[in-house]
Amino acid sequence: MLTTIRATLLFVSILVSLTAAVGAENESLSAAAESAPRSAGNRARAEARHPVATLEFFGIRADMTVVEITPGGGWYTEILAPFLRDTGKLYAANYDPESENEYFRGNANRLLEKFKADPAIYGQVIATVFVPPAKLEAAPPGSADLVLTFRNLHNWMEQGNEEAAFAAMNTVLKSGGTLGIVQHRQDTIVEQDPKAESGYVREDYVIALAEAAGFELVAKSEINANPKDTGDHPKGVWTLPPNFDLGDVDRDKYLAIGESDRMTLKFVKKP
Q: Could you give the CA distance from residue 74 to residue 68 in angstroms, rounded to a whole number?
């Protein structure tokens, strides 16, 4: 009887400790999101992008090695860098700063300048280049606990490089590591455009790509869903905020819809 009581007390003690650890992790992530030196525009978009809930869904911890694929202007990097700075590691695998393409070159160099301008936040970030199919070494093979990619798949599809991108993300992950994907979501009644020119991709298409690359789907979330978004717009996803590619044409209509409907998918790398 005494042994059973001791075992029960030990179990309760462990459960309380784990709950406290998760609570502290969540508070740390929320603090990173709140204290990040963000522009007013970036901060306002948190309502549509749900960064804390999204990262929690992907299972991020402060001691992880994380690879952010194509961070662009660094919207998520602003949260990831301070969160991982002390006990984790962050690779920012962006465009090539020496690219012949002016957009890619400018975007990459602006992010690097952002890192240099605030070493207290970004001094530990490791900047790498991810340009499939030519430059795929986002991080050392088998080194990452978590790979994150936000709204990038349509760009790879436009260039026909989606399979190379998924294979490369699989390579950098440890066995059992996590791949987190957020992507503009196309209705399944619409045939998938192989070039994804609208920016939207069918969820089943993404899952098939990931599975073919050696991943297993373990969870879905509707954190970033927007049922108001039909996915049928004159300028594709860029019709909606924050881009408003139609300018003032029907701007109130698209503002009322809000940002795109997005899938949020969690995969693990198969052994």
A: 9
Domain carrying residue 139: 36-269
Q: Which of 119, 129, 123, 71 is nearest to 98 (CA)?
A: 129
Domain count, the chain: 1
6, two tokens: 């001791």
Asked if the structure places residue 212 within a domain, the reply is yes
Q: Is 21 contained in some domain?
A: no
- pLDDT per residue as tens digits for the range 109-120: 999 999 999 999
Rounded CA separation 148/103 (Å)? 22
Supply φ then ψ for residue 261, to 5 degrees.
Answer: -70, 130
Say which CATH number the domain at 128 has: 3.40.50.150
Q: What SS3 string covers 116-156?
A: HHCHHHHCCCEEEECECCCECCCCCCCCEEEEEEECCHHHH
pLDDT tens, position by position, 230-264: 999 999 999 999 999 999 999 999 999 999 999 99
25 in a structural domain: no
In a domain, 28, yes or no: no
